[in-house]
Specification:
There is one protein chain. With about 425 residues, the chain is of the alpha+beta class. The chain folds into two domains: about 5-20 and about 230-430, Enolpyruvate transferase domain (UDP-n-acetylglucosamine1-carboxyvinyl-transferase, Chain), CATH 3.65.10; about 20-225, Enolpyruvate transferase domain (UDP-n-acetylglucosamine1-carboxyvinyl-transferase, Chain, Alpha-beta prism), CATH 3.65.10.10. The chain has helices at about 20-30, 50-60, 95-105, 125-130, 165-175, 190-200, 230-245, 260-270, 305-315, 335-340, 385-395, 410-415, 415-425; strands at about 5, 15, 40, 65, 70-75, 105-110, 135-140, 140-145, 155, 180-185, 205, 215, 225, 250, 270-275, 280-285, 290-295, 320-325, 345, 365-370, 380, 400-405, 425-430. The strands form six sheets. Strands 21-22-1-23 form a four-stranded mixed sheet, with helices on one face. A four-stranded mixed sheet has the order 2-14-16-15. A four-stranded mixed sheet has the order 4-5-3-13.
Length: about 425
């Protein structure tokens, strides 16, 4: 089994080109199933997540061709309604339901799993599809769905602004009969990019005030060319590396508009950044000060920024308070940080400005971080993508050589992470 060895303790400096975002490209590949014409995606990240999505769409009949970072997809006919063969890969399979219902009127979707950060139920997806006219039968290994006729538009109010549920409804409504309104929709940059792609394909989608999206269904969608936006989560990851190691990293292609909330946090703790013509430069400081923040859906502080940023806060003077409102079990990684020397205490209380949906549920979803603390190297098992990146940040700060295993998660989330880290001076290697 491959392992990653990192020797920490030195500032990292240089330039990193930010890859296209995995959280958009995989969904766009699934969206390509809505048409029998060719779809070309540019700036595609070469990571495991893309490979899984490619395998998923090919399973139902997609023909694909990858040339460097350009992926061409075409599905002249859907040859299968089942994605059961990829049951445990990731949670993308639930998004296959809407395109399959449109193309062939049925879908077999496996029970889905994902990173170990808390339950992510699919009932939002199922409820929306049922409301639009699908018949759903829950089976032992997943769901069997049928649409006897064309899906119909509906008013759908999400209990929570779930990104993937919003994406499911967008895919379902773009070719549904009539008008669909999504209330309390997610409005992440990746959602907006998918809307832009669907518009290029012929969809009619209007962003309303607040979190409302309106879609007028069309009978046919066609092919398009679309560029995958740069990964704001990768940009924040390397920003945290610059801050934590007190180095200087230029994140080429990072977009200011996607990082507004994160940049505010950087400045509040005493870090620095410079927005340049083709990216953002992050500059570490000798000292940082603690802060209080809570995660939220966009435009709030992303839950996927939280883990690497907490690593930075272990090096800040004073007390920091982080209230996680998106995933109730996301702080599991802090035990390893404490083993390395961090001072992080978890609480079940809502230690934020407002009570969140986890109030009184006994989930330890708030963290108090006291610093600065010296970190020492250790052996770590990567539990999920962002916790894995937090471990990388911690290892780069720590005294000594750390060893990380279960690298699949990092390979799923980041393109050439080791190569990019080596290019900015990290002492890192992969061992078999």
């Amino acid at each position: 089994m491959k392992k990653m060895r990192i020797t920490g303790g030195k500032p990292l400096s240089g330039t990193v080109r930010i890859s296209g975002t995995k959280n958009a490209v995989s969904k766009m590949m699934i969206a390509s199933l809505l048409t029998d014409e060719g779809v070309t995606l540019q700036n595609v990240p070469l990571n495991e997540e893309m490979d899984i999505a490619k395998e998923l769409v090919e399973l139902v009949g997609t023909e694909s061709f990858l040339d460097d970072h350009v992926l061409t997809l075409k599905t002249p006919s859907v040859t299968s309604s089942s994605t059961m063969a990829l049951t445990r890969k990731n949670r993308l399979s639930i998004l296959m339901a809407a395109p399959l219902l449109h193309r062939i009127g049925e879908a077999s979707i496996p029970s889905v799993e994902g990173d170990k950060i808390g339950p992510r139920p699919v009932n939002f997806h199922i409820d929306a599809l049922v409301k639009m006219g699908a018949t759903v039968e829950e089976r032992e290994d997943g769901w069997y769905m049928v649409a006897q006729e064309r899906l119909k538009g509906a008013l759908i109010e999400l209990p929570y602004p779930s990104v993937m549920a919003t994406e499911t409804i967008l895919l379902a409504s773009s070719m549904a009969e009539g008008r669909t309104v999504i209330r309390n929709a997610a409005i992440e940059p990746e959602i907006r990019s998918m809307i832009m792609m669907l518009q290029k394909m012929g969809a009619i989608v209007e962003l309303g005030a607040g979190r409302e999206i309106e879609i007028i269904g069309v009978e046919k969608l066609h092919g398009c060319t679309h560029r995958v936006l740069p990964d704001r989560l990768e940009a924040a990851s390397f920003a945290c590396i610059a801050l934590a190691t007190r180095g200087e990293i230029f994140c080429e292609d990072a977009r200011h508009e996607d990082l507004i909330t994160f940049l505010n946090a950087v400045r509040m703790i005493g870090g620095e950044y410079k927005v340049e013509e083709n990216g953002i430069r992050f500059i570490g400081a000798p000292k940082y000060k603690g802060m209080q923040f809570e995660t939220d859906t966009a435009p709030g502080f992303s839950t996927d920024w939280q883990q690497p940023f907490v690593c930075v806060l272990t090096q800040a003077e004073g007390t920091s308070v982080v209230h996680e409102t998106v995933y109730q079990e996301r702080f599991g990684y802090t035990k390893t940080l404490n083993d390395m020397g961090a001072d992080i205490e978890l609480f079940a209380n809502c230690l934020g400005e407002l009570d969140c949906r986890f109030k009184d549920q006994n989930h330890k979803h708030s963290a108090v971080i006291k610093g600065p603390t010296s970190l020492k190297a250790t052996k770590m098992k990567v539990p999920d993508i962002r916790a894995g990146l937090a471990y990388v940040v911690a290892a780069l700060v720590a005294d000594g050589t750390s060893e990380l295993s279960d690298l699949f998660h990092l390979e799923r989330g980041y393109e050439d992470l080791v190569g990019k880290l080596q290019a900015i001076g990290a002492d890192i290697e992969i061992i078999e």
